[in-house]
Amino acid sequence: MSHTALFEGLIADPDGRPVTVVHVGGSAQYVVDDGGFKFHHDAETIDRLVLAQIGQVASENRDALTRGVLQMIGQDDLFTKAAVDAQLNNMQSGFDQLIRQGLPENARTYLGMLGFRIVLNFHGEIERIDQPTAPDPGDGSE
């Protein structure tokens, strides 16, 4: 049972309306309003589903992600690559820590500005996750 909703402010219903967060018995709940009927969904369950999908995308793009991290930090040596690989291997423990600590409000705001959005239906199913993407270097826009 999580006391925080990791993606508060980043979740909308299928009609684009924001999903609110309430606390019931100390547990954070995402609330999807369907014409006045409010469906409550355990925030930790939804958050873990979202993190699992993000983790899957990261795993599928592991090489590009590693190259991007190495480029971003300005290091491209064997030891740094090993450290980045170790962090990617331990992604689940990082997700567990994120669930415990929560995502800072400024990080959620930044994700929202980048276009990160989760669409949650009334049944508590994730319909889609809109994630920001890097521009294609070959598309000519700079």
Notes on the protein architecture:
The protein is of the alpha+beta class. The protein has one domain (11-130). Helices cover 44% and strands 21% of the residues. The protein has 5 helices and 6 strands. The protein has helices at 43-60, 62-73, 78-89, 91-101, 105-114; strands at 11-12, 20-24, 27-34, 37-42, 117-120, 126-130. The strands form 2 sheets. Strands 1-5-6 form a 3-stranded mixed beta sheet, covered by helices on one side. β3 (27-34) and β4 (37-42) form a beta hairpin. It is elongated, with a radius of gyration of 17 Å. The N and C termini lie far apart (45 Å).
Topology (SSEs and partners):
Elements: E1 11-12, E2 20-24, E3 27-34, E4 37-42, H1 43-60, H2 62-73, H3 78-89, H4 91-101, H5 105-114, E5 117-120, E6 126-130
Parallel strand pairs: 1-5
Antiparallel strand pairs: 2-3, 3-4, 5-6
Extended strand count? 6
Number of domains: 1
What series of H and E elements makes up the topology? EEEEHHHHHEE
Helical amount among residues, as a percent range?
40-55%
Percentage beta strand: 15-25%
Q: What order do the strands of the largest sheet run in, or round the barrel if closed? A: 1-5-6
Termini gap: 45 Å
Q: Which whole number gives the mean pLDDT?
A: 87
Could you list the spans in which at least 5 consecutive residues all have pLDDT below 50? none
Main sheet properties: 3 strands, mixed
| Class computed from helices, strands and strand pairing | alpha+beta
Number of helices: 5
User: Cα-atom Rg, whole angstroms?
Assistant: 17 Å
Q: What shape does the CA trace take?
A: elongated
